[in-house]
Amino acid sequence: MAAKQVLLNAFNMNCVGHINHGLWTHPRDRSTDFNQLAYWTDLAQLLERGLFDGLFLADILGVYDVYQGGIDLTLKESIQLPVNDPLLLVPAMAGVTRHLGFGVTANLSYEPPFTFARRMSTLDHLTNGRVGWNIVTGYLESAAKAMGLERQVEHDRRYDQADEYLEVLYKLWEGSWEDDAVLADRQRRIYAQPGKVHKVRHQGEFYRVEGYHLSQPSPQRTPVLYQAGSSERGLLFAGRHAECVFIGGSDHAAVRAQVDKVRASAVAAGRPADAIKVFMGISVIVAPTEAQARDKHAEYLLYASPEAGIAHFSSSTGIDLAAFGLDEPIVERKTNAIESVVKTFTGWTKRRLLQQHALGGRYPLAIGSPAQVADQLLAWIDETGLDGFNLTRTVTPESYVDFIDLVVPELQSRGRYKTAYEEGTLRHKLFGQGSRLPREHAGAAWRAQPENTRRSNL
Amino acid sequence: MAAKQVLLNAFNMNCVGHINHGLWTHPRDRSTDFNQLAYWTDLAQLLERGLFDGLFLADILGVYDVYQGGIDLTLKESIQLPVNDPLLLVPAMAGVTRHLGFGVTANLSYEPPFTFARRMSTLDHLTNGRVGWNIVTGYLESAAKAMGLERQVEHDRRYDQADEYLEVLYKLWEGSWEDDAVLADRQRRIYAQPGKVHKVRHQGEFYRVEGYHLSQPSPQRTPVLYQAGSSERGLLFAGRHAECVFIGGSDHAAVRAQVDKVRASAVAAGRPADAIKVFMGISVIVAPTEAQARDKHAEYLLYASPEAGIAHFSSSTGIDLAAFGLDEPIVERKTNAIESVVKTFTGWTKRRLLQQHALGGRYPLAIGSPAQVADQLLAWIDETGLDGFNLTRTVTPESYVDFIDLVVPELQSRGRYKTAYEEGTLRHKLFGQGSRLPREHAGAAWRAQPENTRRSNL
Prior knowledge:
The structure is a homodimer of 458-residue chains.
Chain A: E1 7-13, H1 37-49, E2 54-58, H2 72-76, H3 90-95, E3 101-107, H4 113-126, E4 131-136, H5 141-146, H6 155-175, E5 182-185, E6 190-192, E7 200-203, E8 208-211, E9 224-227, H7 232-241, E10 244-247, H8 252-268, E11 277-286, H9 290-301, H10 306-317, H11 339-345, H12 350-356, E12 365-368, H13 370-384, E13 388-391, H14 398-413, H15 426-431
Parallel strand pairs in A: 1-2, 1-13, 2-3, 3-4, 4-9, 9-10, 10-11, 11-12, 11-13
Antiparallel strand pairs in A: 5-6, 7-8
Helix pairs in contact in A: 4-6, 6-7, 7-8, 10-12, 13-14
Keywords (chains A, B): Flavoprotein, FMN, Monooxygenase, Oxidoreductase
Protein name (chains A, B): Dimethyl-sulfide monooxygenase
InterPro entries (chains A, B): Diverse_substr_monoxygenases, Luciferase-like_dom, Luciferase-like_sf, NTA_MOA
């Protein structure tokens, strides 16, 4: 069997400081241009030159206000604040590319499924089937309060709500319009055929919907579904719904274990083990030689902000690290925390966390020559069963340019990275099959069937 | 005083059949390409060539299901169904233009103000200050049911909610970040200054928000505010909030009266009478000679669908015209109806409505040579006090091309239309002043002041 090809997303966010904090102060870093359209269209074209499978856009509603009990450092170092809407970047980037996929984070907790379904269908149309959705429910208290809630909804309860939300979306995306509903027949004056467009009637615990999906069938119907949950409940959700899962990682053994859990979750839901592609976040610093890469790393560190890194960490875990001594280990556990982060870093001292969060943060950091970086990437893939990476930015767009000019050719020369895009939708490119959800996926069960739809003209 | 220059928006919608129904069947009509990005980027470039002030994008949540008690004709003639999200068109169009403004309809009833505020700020950033928002609250029963409500909220109550929604938005857009909050100072490592970003605390009848606006100040902060209410309560709302008001129209006297009411509403709210620009919808069929224009009109009529026109009318008024005899006048009045449409057409017979809705619908239809059309447009402006037009499409993009090639030069030769864009934001272009809300506008009162904000670090 041929060795597995590496899948690759750029990992980014519509903000200044994303993962590798403080580098916005580097003279060559352009992340402070994030409010400008050209910053994003240039990036999209760059990534397409590098044959990236996708651009994965993170998002957060709310602010990081745990560290020092406020947002002072968050503002100074621009730690994911300000942060603009990621969905609105996609149409402009789609307009200047032909193949690049877009995995966009959207929080389902604060938007009715009916309008969200239309938003994603619109993107799937405009991108010609290149859109994915990273499903999140949010965990920040500050977001819940901004939305008028007293407090954040409890973790597992959010997943129950998400399960129902997805069910409503499948009904709208998969079940409302039959494949041959749209004729666009000018002679017979039939744009869409009555009887082939069905009213969705949903009455559940969280949602109630009675209406026709507003968009006609888009190339993928359901966008490619991304998810990042690592808790038991999160994995149950992933097994049912996710097609791509995004994980953090510290070492091969832990990642191997997590990959296995993700695959087991798919199998438990009646899907093939490889129905889910697993991506790990990673930061790469590469140069023509190892020495040059080490120098670059040292130079980047001059601008990095380890303190901003642990301020971010403080909100992810709910633990204010400002109150900790340098050699005090992190053992506290909060209710509303990102479980994978807690899992990876429990027992670490603040000193070690500061070092880790200077560059890399919750994801591994690979430094070296093109061959060395390729070795490390392929070892991750081959030793853990991973499918690919979400590549963070360090100094941007420099770090993507370096990767594309140096690592991509190295991976290609080893036969481990594509040398051209395939035609077709994002789902087709990722899985080599059709554009639609596969038969075994939970969403496929909602394709126009008598029991969950009703003729429009009755 | 120099005669008033004509302001001009293209009036469009992310769907096939918008106002002049049935013309999608015309061999040269391209509206069935609305799912494709290039359809919109081509249109934006065309409109910028014609120096249009803006593209006004209508929207509807829900379907037209009153006529014949269902959506059969709605589907066959594609009467605003399918209809995709309009906001997502803007970034792509902004990427291929430099001056064109975008007035986008968004229904406030089903989205929390906190996330909507970020969406619009993101658009204002990406367009470099070219975005406007057409404020609607929705009126369709079918939309309310799709959103999980038992029934549509009562008309005046929706405006009460809208007033509070706007108050929350002003607090976020105008009050959360001070003008000099963002320094982006790499040397001092200060992206934004603590103490200059304020938490909004709102507790009202409909909304409760406690949080920082997520976007840094955009060029216009508050997008240019469009509105189309013509009821007494709607005019009260317009007087407080609207900067551009969009009206229908049948004759000079009725339009003059409506324009006067709009201006009076501004004055009643303590604003100058010309603080609101008033636009009327209009359809234009123009050709080099009058005879050719009449021929074109006759040819278009071969493809028009008067029945689709009155099906649309039926949902706008809540009256199923399928049940009416040809000579029966419309006198019924429904609770959830578009008041301006009811007002204009009460007493008309179905026969006359069918004729009117073949082409033009609820807006006047101007047919003729370039000089004749210019005469008509200028008569509307000069006789009624209107500021400009929302130009519907007939056969698209042909009708915009005709207008730009034939009518624009005629208006320019009379000194009544700009010959080049001014630099600056949409608000600056429309009002010739700054980019921000003027001092007298209700929203300006919410600029960072001690009583409605609080230092982030207290």
